[in-house]
Amino acid sequence: MASELYKKPIMFAVVATVVILIGTIVTMFYPMLTPEMHPRLENLKPYTALQLAGKDIYQREGCNNCHTQTVRPLKTEVMRYGEYSKAGEFAYDRPFLWGSKRTGPDLARIGGKYPDTWHYSHFEKPQAFFAESNMPSYGWIKARKLDPEDIAAHMKALDLPFTPADITALGDKTEMDALVAYIQVIGTAVKKTVSVVQAGPKETHIANPLAGDPKAIALGKELYKTNCASCHGEDGKGGLAPSVVDNEFLYVAGDMPDDDYYEIINNGTQPGMVEDGRTAKGGMPPYAGALDKDKIWSLVAYIRSLKGN
Amino acid sequence: MSDYQYDNQTVKGFIVSSIFWGVVGILVGLWISVQMWKPEWNIPPFFTFGRMRVVHTNGLAFGLGIGAIFGMCYYIVMRLTKRPLLFPKLARFHLYLFNVAITLAAISLFAGMNQSLEYAELEWPLDIGVVILWVIFAINVFGTIIKRKEEQMYISLWYIIATVIAVAVLYIVNNLSIPAGLFKSYHLYAGVNSANVEWWYGHNAVGFIFTTPILAMFYYFLPKSTGIPIYSHRLSIIAFWSLVFAYLWTGAHHLVYTPLPDWIQTLGIVFTIFLIAPSWGSVINGYYTVGSDWSKMESNYLTKFFLLGITFYGLQTVQGPTQALRVVSQLIHYTDWVPGHVHMGTMGWVTMTTAASIYYVIPKIYNTEIYSVKIANTHFWLVLIGQLMFSITMWITGIQQGALWKATNPDGTLKYTFMEGLVKNYPYWQLRTVAGLIFTVGMLFFIYNVFMTMRKGNLAASRA
User: Fold this and answer.
1) Which CATH superfamily is domain A49-185 in?
2) Prediction ipTM score
3) Angstrom distance (rounded) from CA A104 to CA A22
4) CA of A129: which chain B residue's CA is closest?
5) B197 touches chain A (CB under 8 A)
6) CATH 1.20.210.10 in chain B, residues?
């Protein structure tokens, strides 16, 4: 009887279709009908016209071939990138852009990590920031204007809210503006968690255990070159980011205690954050995931040596 | 005595086309392998890694892979049904349309028209073209099988029927999108749902493009070239049904530790482990077939291609399920281990088996013998060495990457910055380019051999 199946192609095709559809229905079609596949975080905002234009460019250039956008709930991954990805973050992502290869770092928490100016310069020449980076330069998209009509059509297709003024405003924007706007919104629906908060208790400032140590200063110098110089300048006198040697910190004159340096390097700064009575404008990325305690103290020692105090 | 002749022109056309697109795909692959360690090799806007990687994957999966599959399926279907194709002119049109579609696909991908769905990057107008191509193929395959002159359907026909059905379902469902212009669309599904649909498709593209049609070739051409019948018919029945049943459950193993609901991930992992059984059903069938007369390994140059091909299929289908396990996935996912895995399947199993099938078919339809067995042997060893070197270097650097990303200091802080991890890949990425070069040279020997065979033979419609 069963062997008859191999003599009846139509019957065979019907049976094969049914067999193929079982797994399809259980793992793909059925979940689609459940709310757990359509989650949305309350504070997730739809893409603006400029951000969507940036996302289109991200897709056009195939950024997802080298960068993932999902942080796994693994200890070291959360330390390196930030809070692990939540299902409700991606309600406006058609398609999802989680990717499958990390030739470059994950970008799920890139939004707000660096200031805009950092991204403009980094896209222009990634090797100026990381000498051995294999990321191609995307400076060429600075010269390309956006096409507002196109973007309006894309917003309409996705049924995203926009005003005519949003579209007119795109007229003098470049593709680079759009890409940076998109990068800056990725993953921002989830509140940033700071991995390690303080060097020590607030009331009693703790001094740099490596202060003045020549070995630490030498290590700090190396670390400064690879991690800090691209924004704060080779000599520490500033560039994209403020000077670290002019005895003015967070826009207030006067030196800070060692552990405040430590915290700023460790945690980065966010707009409005208050550090030792000083209010930050934000833009400094956290290095807690990248540098361990000794390395951060070594950096502090080196910066002190630059200032001569 | 019924009077019939096989149309070999279309089969030959598909073989030549697939070789052409194979060369394009391999050269692009070599280029992007250099970009990995030499960013200056990115030439914007068209020749950057982000755009060329999809030309590489699509060119080889759809150009080389599907091109060869169309040609070989037509060849096999005609022989197993003992009749010409039901619509030979439609098949010829199919060949022309295939080349037009792949040309437009390559141009559109270089131009950055990209749905950002892995292995489904083509934009919607081309998707419609692909569906038309597939419907034409399905009509001819089903029509010919229904009107067959041989009552019993051989194993290869089962795999071909499953391929035609599954690819149609997968491709159409995953490519449903919201058009936003002629060259731009957005996935119909959003977020986690989009991810689940895409990897249901993505993994089964592997299953029904890189597995079932290649198995159809294997089950047909291994007995044909060796003269030994397949070891166990019953085993092939069990392996077939359990394979086509289990494959569709497994896509979520690409999404382990992502925000996809845990139960879908777990189900995906469980069925992936199960998939070892049907895969090895074919491996065992292959080995025991040749096992009845091992001297074929020496006397028939094609035997080793098929046997090594099925060996890599066997290794692939053990390594793949291992990778699905959470404990392994967390170390190797997102690293270069994965391209190492993929290339063992594509270079070791798919290309090895397809090349052997072409070696078998070309002399047959040209009424001649292979131009040079010696060149075929050189080709064999070069692609084998190139592929092993490729995969092994990628596995090493993949484990290294995963380990560096996880390494912590005694105080629990991370030991390496991303950059410190990245630079350690460079020597391996350079070795990979060398491996790719060796493989490419092997493929050039193959192509030379095929074309010289065609030159000395005489293509005609035939009855065998």
Assistant:
1) Cytochrome c-like domain (1.10.760.10)
2) 0.96
3) 38
4) B419
5) yes
6) 1-188, 207-458
Q: Which CATH number fits domain A214-307: 1.10.569.10, 2.60.40.1180, 1.10.760.10, 3.30.450.90?
A: 1.10.760.10
User: Could you tell me which CATH number the domain at B1-188 has?
Assistant: 1.20.210.10
Residue with tokens 């890189």: B210
Q: Do the Cβ atoms of A9 and B48 come within 8 Å?
A: no
Size of the A and B interface in Cβ pairs below 8 Å = 271
pTM: 0.92
Respond yes or no on whether the N-terminal peptide bond of residue A161 is cis (omega within 30° of 0): no
Instruction: Return the pLDDT at A203.
Output: 64
Give φ, ψ of B35 to 5 degrees.
-55, -30
Q: Nearest Cα to B53, choosing from B37, B67, B33, B72?
A: B33
Contact call for A62 and B112, based on CB within 8 A = yes
Within an 8 Å CB–CB cutoff, is residue B264 touching chain A?
yes
Measured between CB atoms, does A41 come within 8 Å of chain B? no
For residue range B402-452, what is the model confidence (pLDDT) as tens digits? 999 999 988 888 899 899 999 999 999 999 999 999 999 999 999 999 999
Examine domains A49-185 and A214-307 and report if their fold is the same.
yes
Note whether B184 contacts A56, CB cutoff 8 Å. Answer: yes
Residue A274 one-letter amino acid: V
What separation in angstroms does the CA of B370 have from each of A218, B222, B228, B292, B455?
A: 68, 17, 20, 25, 11
Domain boundaries B207-458, CATH class: mainly alpha
Q: Which of chain B's residues have a Cβ under 8 Å away from the Cβ of A292?
A: 409, 411, 413-415
> Residue B279: pLDDT above 80?
yes
Q: Letter for the amino acid at B144?
A: T
Mark yes or no for CB contact B39/A127 under 8 Å: yes
What are the backbone dihedrals phi and psi of residue A116, each rounded to the nearest 5 degrees, phi first?
-50, -45
Q: Within an 8 Å CB–CB cutoff, is residue B39 touching chain A? A: yes
pLDDT for the residue A240: 86
Residue A192 has pLDDT above 90, yes or no: no
| CA distance to partner chain B, nearest, from residue A279 (Å) | 28
Q: For chain A, give every domain's residue range.
A: 49-185, 214-307
Residue B443's closest CA among B10, B60, B55? B60
Task: Using CB atoms within 10 Å of the CB of residue A124, give its burial: 0 to 12 exposed, 13 to 18 middle, 19+ buried.
Answer: middle
Residues of A in contact with B339 (CB under 8 A): 101
